[in-house]
TrEMBL record:
GO terms for molecular function: histone H2AQ104 methyltransferase activity; RNA binding; rRNA methyltransferase activity. SUPFAM superfamilies: S-adenosyl-L-methionine-dependent methyltransferases (SSF53335). Belongs to the methyltransferase superfamily. Fibrillarin family. This is Fibrillarin-like rRNA/tRNA 2'-O-methyltransferase. Its EC number is 2.1.1.-. It comes from Methanohalobium evestigatum (strain ATCC BAA-1072 / DSM 3721 / NBRC 107634 / OCM 161 / Z-7303). Keywords: Methyltransferase, RNA-binding, rRNA processing, Transferase, tRNA processing. HAMAP family: RNA_methyltransf_FlpA. It is an enzyme of class 2 (transferase). S-adenosyl-L-methionine binds at T82, T83, E100, F101, D125, A126, D145, V146, S147, Q148.
Length: 226
């Protein structure tokens, strides 16, 4: 098994022609979502299932992931913590504020946080950042993966409240959560336009790419807050 670091804290495991993403396990001996654990040179890595992670799919699309071991991250739409756990492996000395609306899913997320002290669970609606402004500080990166129709607006509201100047937004646009019948490419164009012109904060779009084949009708966006 060969391994190389392709971005800070993100690794590519390869065996012959087969290649997979991985992160160094912050909690050795324990998997989060039954992902395989692989030991290379006495270091344990967790394979990253990109079919379950928009963030992982963005890495495969060559997004310049703006994470470091010290990053402070606001994750909107954390669910049970599949992708959050990999960010936890990367931002080992940082902090991840994991916002999730479902109380049932939050129970699983809390269990994850008990084993990973750099994750803070926040039970709240990402569309109302004022509801958790007493918990979340200014962050370096916002990652958003929510299923609401006003996805660009949610990103802008949270960026205005919490993103540092020149901070980064990683956004997964879900076309079918906005309109079930419209052409996804048209939806993507409109949402990108909103981010650059329609809100109190303005973004510079650094990269955009559809996330197929791993996630159908999804667009990944990397933007910087102007």
């Amino acid at each position: 098994m060969d391994i190389k670091e392709i971005s800070q804290g993100i690794f590519e495991l390869s065996k012959g022609k087969k290649k997979q993403l991985a992160t160094r396990n912050l909690n050795p001996g324990n998997s989060v979502y039954s992902e395989p654990l692989v030991v290379v040179d006495d270091v344990e890595y967790r394979r990253w299932d990109v079919h379950r992670s928009k963030f992982g799919a963005m890495v495969l699309k060559k997004f310049d992931v703006p994470l470091s071991p010290e990053s402070k991250v606001l994750y909107l739409g954390a669910a049970s913590g599949t992708t959050v756990s990999h960010i936890s492996d990367i931002a080992t000395n940082g902090l991840i504020y994991a916002v999730e609306f479902s109380s049932r899913t939050m129970r699983d997320l809390v269990m994850l946080c008990e084993k990973r002290p750099n994750i803070i669970p926040v039970l709240a609606d990402a569309g109302h950042p004022s509801h958790y402004s007493h918990i979340v500080e200014k962050v370096d990166v916002i990652f958003q993966d929510v299923s609401q129709p006003n996805q660009a607006e949610i990103a802008a509201k949270n960026a205005e409240a919490f993103l540092k100047k020149d901070g980064f937004l990683l956004l997964a646009i879900k076309a079918r959560s906005i309109d079930t019948v419209a052409n996804p490419k048209k939806i993507f164009k409109e949402e990108v336009k909103k981010l650059t012109k329609d809100f109190a904060v303005e973004f510079e779009i650094l990269k955009r790419s559809e996330l197929e084949p791993n996630h159908e009708d999804h667009l990944g966006i990397l933007a910087r807050l102007k």
